[in-house]
Every structure is written in structure tokens, then in C-alpha cells.
Recover the amino acids of this structure.
């Protein structure tokens, strides 16, 4: 069993190395490791500083403008453009809402940021009975396989 | 792996002293909470949990392309127990080394980290790699051991691997194909049987013109063979000041819940389907003002296609004001959730204002719900939060909240919180942040 695991691990490492050594690798320079321009708090509007396209990813700067709708649907971008998000977000930023194990709800952790789009504001232990019934699929994304140790005390 | 906790993470904070020419950033948040819990019929409890979050990033190690990233938290209870578990707990969220190549966005990493690639949103102890290929192609892969929950070894499988391949056609189109395999990732507590969790998926982004954009994905559950979810978004930008979006989501719960480790809540065997559609309209009315209206219809049916809870609608509007160079941010919103049965229906209103002068920060936040049907003999709930803060030094901010509320569970809900955040940056020769 463990041998299989080790083998597959080695295979992946070998595969990764092969890929990076391979001639088909793009010749383009990598993105900087961090966004060159310091941005403050508050939602960034990429179009303020960037031309129509963000060249490195071939998508319009409009696409990543942090509108309310971008923030609400960010999962669709995060699963495609991880490297773009990583330009400005350490994963600890995402960890306020996404974790395998956490005990403070995002709106308490960031109680000083009412302007943020944080889930579970107010008395959520009551409200969740309604929201969870109406549409449990969003809950599953965060609590279905991870961060559900607290739920077990009532949902046995 | 759980034993590799914050103390060891903190010990690693000492490394920068040993490494020359490295950029170091250390940051953290300390949170003291004081809450009284007096649910009817239970003893009054006073909980005083202290939680320390800490993170560190070391960049430009060795040849300048190697970096180290750490983040985690540790909690101790100074009063009554704050969770149903131990009176202290902690978690290493991530700790990994990454090597970035100067070309092709190539990167190799190892340790504990999160991945978000197509079907995979996972935390694992293992390795990952990615690179762009010539001609618009890109690949990424990861493999290792999924990080289990404290609750037990059956919460996740023993081995996980996956990856995503993508192709981009100019500035018009990106398609991705991703897969994931988790050995023993599905545990059925009723039979005690373990199966492999396997998912594949396709994702799409398409921007045929400046005014139109479509993105989304379809995920397929290989373990039971069926589509787990469709999730698509259409964005229209007819004018610079107006944005319109349409959304469609569909989840077949037999497949969507296939990997559940909390079957009392998310039970794949019960089946059922959730379909929702809706959209939003955003109007940037004037530089400081953004208006947003949203609507969503949710149709939840059981195995026999009968609607549960009668289906529900969620709709409302929000106004956000950002002024004085983002120093002043405020908003008001109203939402209505309406289930056909009256249960599961409520009105929600919220308003907040915050001001950040650079040295002082303060905010007021109010939220309330009116339920259509009484819950535990009560028809409404509200919470008021006042927050103040001060940047003592550029690297150090002290802030605190006082919140008061009334709700169906608690006649008086008074909570206090004190938060200290620090952020320390030391740059070696390669200044870049």
C-alpha cells in the first residue's frame, strides 16, 4: 500500500521534472512573484491601471476587476487562474473563509471589516437552518469534506 | 502530521536570522474573545478563547527563486470550554517550500498546501508542479496525502493526486480539463466500506467581445458515474457603468455529495437535485456609488422530483458607497428569502459605515432578520457591532469590537473581542514588495 503511494509520488515528481525539462515549455518570462504595484485595502479595479488586456493571462482586465459579482463568483476564477490570484493573495487571505479546520467565523475574524463580503453575518446559528435548507450546495463546498467538526455536535 | 503545530512553525520564524539576502515577512493576528453563552435550559457559560494566527514568508532564498511559506493558528481557552472538543487546539494551515522558475510560470512545491485547480480544492501534504507550455497550453499536477480532520482517519483518504491541463486560444477562449483521484476517499459509515473518490471536470472561459463573457464548469463523479454539477455564468457589459450577469447552477446530490464525510447532513444516498438560476444587475451610478440588484430562484427536489420546501426565491438590492479615497466605505442592503411554505422565509436588512483615517479606524454595523414563521417562539433577530482600532505603529494595529444582539436562541447576546495584528517586513537585497 505505502509502496504504491511512494511509487505514485515518485512518478508525479518525475513527471513534473520531465515537464519542466521538456522542450515544449513556453519561453515566456514568468509573472513576477508579487504584484509590482502596492494596492491598498478595498476592492481593486484592474482597469484603472491596466490596458484592455492583462497580457500574461490573455484575459481582459475587466475580467478580474473585483466587482461585487466577481467577489461572489470568485470560485469560477480561482479554479482557472490560481497563478493570477497568487500575485496579490497569500493563501492566508483565503484561509479566513477556506480552511480544513477553523473555529472563528469569517465575520468575527474580520469584525472590523464590515465592507468585506463575508459569509455568516449576524446570528447565523439560527439563520443557517433556513439558508441550509434552501440551498445546501454552497455549504457543501466548505463544510462537506472539511471544517465540519463543529457541525457534528448538532448534526450527528 | 497534526503534531507539526505552531510551536514548530514559530521556531521556523527564527530561520531568517540564519539566511542572508532573504526577504522575510512575518505577520499575525491575536484574538481575545469574551462571550457569555446562556441558551435556555443550559448552564450559563463564559468563554474566553485566545487564538493566535501566525504566518511567515521567506523569499529569495538560495539562488533567489526558492521561498518558504507558513501559516497556522493555536487556541487556548481561558474560561469555559469554547468548543465541544479540547480546551486547546491548533492547525497548521500550510507550510511549504516553492521553487519558481524564471520562465513559463513554472513552479515546483512541496510540503503542506492548498490547491485550487479545476475539480480540486484540497489541502494536502505532498508535492505540486505547474508550467505553461508553448502554443497556449498549460499543465499542473499534485500528489500526496490529504489532511484529515481531528475527528478521525476516515474523514479523508490515504492518497490524493490530480491535475489540470488547459489550452488558451488567443484572447478568446480558455478550456481546461482536470481530474482527481483519492484512494479510500469515500467512507460509508453504515457499511464500513471505503471507496475511491474520483472526479473529472471541464472548465471554460470565453470572451468573444469586450461586452460579453461566459465562464463555468461541469464536474463528473467517476465513483458513481454521473454529472455532479454544472455551474455557468454569463456576463454582459453593455456600457461602462452597467454590468449584468446570469447564473445557472445544477447539482445532482448523489454525485455532488459523493465525497461527503458528514453524512448526517450531506447524504449522497438520499439523492435529490438542486437547480438554481438568477442574475444580478450592477450600476456604477456615480464614482462613489455602486448599486446592485440580485435575484435567484432555487429549486430543490428529492429523489422523486417533488419540490422540497416549495422551492425558494432570494432577491434584494445593495448600495455601496466608497468615498474620500476609499477612507469612507458604507453600504445598505435588503434581501428577502421566500420559500413557498412560509417556513424558510425571512426579510434581512443590513447597514454599515466604516472610516479609516490611516491612524484610526472605526465602524458600525447592524444586521437584522424578520422571520415569517416563529423560530423557538421568536420572530426576529438583530446584531449591532461597533468596532474601533488604532495603528500604533505601521506594523502594529490594535482593534476591538463590542457586539450586542437578540435572537431566537439568546435573549441577550453580548460579545467582546480584542484583536492585535502585526506585519513585519524585512527586505534583503532584492527589494520587490
Amino acid at each position: 500500500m505505502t509502496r504504491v503511494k511512494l511509487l505514485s509520488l515518485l512518478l508525479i515528481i518525475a513527471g513534473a521534472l520531465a515537464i519542466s525539462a521538456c522542450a515544449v515549455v513556453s519561453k515566456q518570462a514568468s509573472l513576477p512573484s508579487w504584484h509590482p504595484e502596492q494596492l491598498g485595502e478595498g476592492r481593486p479595479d484592474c482597469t484603472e491601471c491596466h490596458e484592455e488586456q492583462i497580457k500574461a493571462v490573455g484575459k481582459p482586465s475587466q475580467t478580474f476587476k473585483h466587482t461585487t459579482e466577481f467577489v461572489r463568483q470568485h470560485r469560477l476564477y480561482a479554479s482557472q487562474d490560481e497563478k493570477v490570484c497568487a500575485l496579490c493573495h497569500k493563501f492566508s487571505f483565503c484561509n479566513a473563509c477556506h480552511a480544513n479546520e477553523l473555529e472563528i467565523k469569517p465575520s468575527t475574524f474580520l469584525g472590523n471589516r464590515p465592507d468585506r463580503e463575508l459569509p455568516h453575518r449576524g446570528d447565523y446559528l439560527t439563520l443557517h437552518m433556513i439558508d441550509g435548507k434552501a440551498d445546501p450546495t454552497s455549504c457543501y463546498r466548505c463544510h462537506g469534506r472539511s471544517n465540519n467538526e463543529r457541525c457534528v455536535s448538532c448534526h450527528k | 502530521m497534526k503534531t507539526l503545530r505552531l510551536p514548530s512553525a514559530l521556531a521556523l520564524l527564527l530561520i531568517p536570522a540564519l539566511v542572508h539576502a532573504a526577504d522575510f515577512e512575518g505577520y499575525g493576528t491575536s484574538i481575545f474573545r469574551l462571550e457569555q453563552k446562556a441558551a435556555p435550559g443550559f448552564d450559563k457559560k463564559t468563554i474566553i478563547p485566545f487564538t493566535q494566527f501566525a504566518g511567515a514568508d521567506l523569499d529569495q532564498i538560495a539562488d533567489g527563486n526558492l521561498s518558504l511559506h507558513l501559516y497556522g493558528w493555536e487556541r487556548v481557552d481561558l474560561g469555559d470550554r469554547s468548543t465541544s472538543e479540547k480546551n486547546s487546539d491548533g492547525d497548521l494551515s500550510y507550510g511549504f517550500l516553492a521553487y519558481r522558475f524564471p520562465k513559463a510560470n513554472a513552479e515546483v512545491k512541496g510540503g503542506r498546501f492548498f490547491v485550487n485547480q479545476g475539480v480540486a480544492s484540497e489541502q494536502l501534504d505532498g508535492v505540486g508542479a505547474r508550467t505553461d507550455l508553448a502554443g497556449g497550453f498549460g499543465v499542473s499536477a499534485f500528489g500526496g496525502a490529504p489532511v484529515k480532520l481531528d475527528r478521525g482517519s476516515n474523514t479523508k483518504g490515504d492518497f490524493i493526486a490530480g491535475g489540470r491541463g488547459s489550452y488558451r486560444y488567443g484572447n478568446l477562449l480558455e478550456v481546461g480539463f482536470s481530474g482527481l483521484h483519492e484512494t479510500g476517499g469515500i467512507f460509508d459509515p453504515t457499511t464500513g466500506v471505503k471507496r475511491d473518490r474520483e472526479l473529472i471536470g471541464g472548465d471554460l472561459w470565453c470572451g468573444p467581445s469586450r461586452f460579453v463573457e461566459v465562464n463555468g464548469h461541469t464536474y463528473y463523479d467517476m465513483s458513481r458515474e454521473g454529472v455532479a454539477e454544472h455551474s455557468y455564468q454569463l456576463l454582459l457589459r453593455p456600457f461602462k457603468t452597467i454590468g449584468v450577469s446570469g447564473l445557472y447552477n445544477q447539482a445532482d446530490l448523489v454525485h455532488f455529495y459523493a465525497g461527503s464525510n458528514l453524512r448526517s447532513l450531506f447524504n449522497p444516498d438520499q439523492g435529490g437535485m438542486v437547480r438554481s438560476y438568477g442574475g444580478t444587475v450592477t450600476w456604477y451610478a456615480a464614482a462613489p456609488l455602486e448599486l446592485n440588484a440580485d435575484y435567484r430562484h432555487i429549486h430543490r427536489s428529492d429523489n422523486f422530483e417533488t419540490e422540497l420546501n416549495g422551492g425558494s426565491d432570494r432577491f434584494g438590492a445593495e448600495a455601496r458607497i466608497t468615498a474620500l479615497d476609499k477612507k469612507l466605505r458604507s453600504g445598505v442592503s435588503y434581501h428577502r428569502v421566500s420559500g413557498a411554505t412560509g417556513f424558510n422565509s425571512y426579510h434581512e436588512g443590513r447597514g454599515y459605515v466604516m472610516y479609516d483615517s490611516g491612524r484610526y479606524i472605526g465602524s458600525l454595523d447592524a444586521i437584522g432578520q424578520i422571520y415569517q414563521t416563529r423560530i423557538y417562539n421568536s420572530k426576529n433577530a438583530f446584531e449591532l457591532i461597533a468596532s474601533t482600532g488604532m495603528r500604533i505603529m505601521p506594523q502594529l494595529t490594535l482593534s476591538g469590537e463590542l457586539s450586542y444582539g437578540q435572537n431566537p436562541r439568546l435573549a441577550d447576546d453580548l460579545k467582546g473581542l480584542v484583536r492585535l495584528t502585526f506585519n513585519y517586513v524585512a527586505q534583503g537585497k532584492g527589494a520587490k514588495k
In short: The two ends of chain A are 32 Å apart (CA to CA). Residues 58 and 87 of chain A are 16 Å apart (CA to CA).
